[in-house]
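Notebook entry, structure prediction.
Reason for the run: the old model in the group folder had no record of what sequence produced it. Starting over properly, with the input documented here first.
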Amino acid sequence: MTALHARVAHHARLTPDAPAVRCGDLVMGYGELDRRAEAFVPLLRSLGIGPETPVGVHLRRCPELPVALLAVLKAGGYCVPLDPAYPPERLRSVMEEVAAPVALTLRALREGLPRHESAVVCLDEHDAPPSGGPAPRPPAAAHPQALAWASYTSGSTGRPKGVMLSHGPLASLAEGIADRLELTPGDRVLQFASIGFSVAAEEIFSTWHAGACLVLDPEESLADAARGPQQRPSTVRADARAAQTSQIVTPEPAP
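New structure, fully documented this time:
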């Protein structure tokens, strides 16, 4: 089974200009996504990130989110999403539970992090690698049982409980969703679930498994984001497996 980040690297080598992420007017190809993520790997490893190491990802839907997720996996760690919309006490409980040595965020969101001992990396304080630069190194292999994602839900007691996903099962799930929905590189998939839920991982990695484009936009513009310019309203169908949140968009050509 191909590791989650290796699948992105595969598309980056074969079709570097194919769109991997759309956020508003910004479109990031697979090659650029892979380069941007790779640029953060040395920093993460210098901060102690390696196999089975948790990394807090305190980001909304923005261009930095997919870069951060991919960088963590490339460095060997696993992603612990910290939705900025969550109450501070819930974020504090999760951070205390996982004891992540690093938290990734933006300058505008940094103050929303509760008091913690993690090193904070603001992704927008680091320049993006130049386009056309050297290709990233071949991705390191990931053991199928190595952790890739940890989502924390409130649980029946009100205290967040972790749902741990390892590379093998998550990669198999992503492949199964992509195959069942017959996703192709020409599709755009609207990332709909809160980043704090495991469904978000299904949406993101099934899209990238197929080489399709992940659409990220704030909640108030989710429906409009999936429409390209000069297009009539898109045909949208829901992925029932992913809790009816993944939206696959097939644009119709404008007359």
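Summary: Confidence is low (pLDDT under 50) at residues 225-246, 250-255.
The old model has been moved to the deprecated folder.
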